[in-house]
Amino acid sequence: ACTQRLGSNGCTAITTAIVDALSRSEHMDKYVAEICRQSHVNLPTEIIAEVGKMNMLELSKSGNGVKNIGNFLVVYSEGNPSDMALRLPIIVHQLDSEVWHIRSCILQAMGHVVAYIHATCQQKASVEEKSAKSDDASEKKENGETDGEETLKKYNDEKEYGIEKKATVEDKSI
């Protein structure tokens, strides 16, 4: 979409401008993360690739740029952990950077991804467990097997509505 409107280098110019604004302004991390979340083009990949190409040691000398970019990575991974999981290989080499803040932020982003994967696995296991329980219950009903609770409920219903067993009815007639 971006290349259709701005040419082959259009996305690169937009990406460069966004990364520049991100590195200069502390408040931009949330806004850029939201733009990336709503973007239907490769903007998040391009921004993270640009971050991956940066020399963090030089950027750290110019002020808060590393902090701002690191905060963007954390905010983006909080809101889009599945997308960040796909893009982590682009920036994982930055863990070798001498700047501790970017290393810390990348580890935080990885933590959000791991937490997301764990939650997804738990949800999947829970759904599978519920499915297995419902399959077991339907098999028992097909086989005429009932749980103790179902038998007790039937007994109480029969007793409440005055339904007696056939043997009891025959005994009274004799």
User: Which class best fits the helix and strand makeup?
Assistant: mainly alpha
Outline type:
elongated
**What portion of residues belong to β-strands?**
under 5%
Low-confidence stretches: 1-8, 165-170
Please give the largest β-sheet: none
Beta-strand segment tally: 0
Rg measurement, Å? 30 Å
The helix count comes to 10
H/E element sequence: HHHHHHHHHH
Q: Helical content, roughly?
A: over 70%
Average per-residue pLDDT, rounded, comes to 80
Q: Oligomeric state of the chains?
A: single chain
- Terminal CA distance reads 90 Å
Short description:
With 174 residues, the chain is mostly helical. Helix content is 79%, strand content 0%. It is built from ten helices and no strands.
Description of the molecule:
This protein is mostly helical and 174 residues long. Helices cover 79% and strands 0% of the residues. The chain contains ten helices and no strands. The longest helix has 43 residues, at 100-142. The chain starts with a helix and ends with a helix. Mean pLDDT is 80; it is low at 1-8 and 165-170.
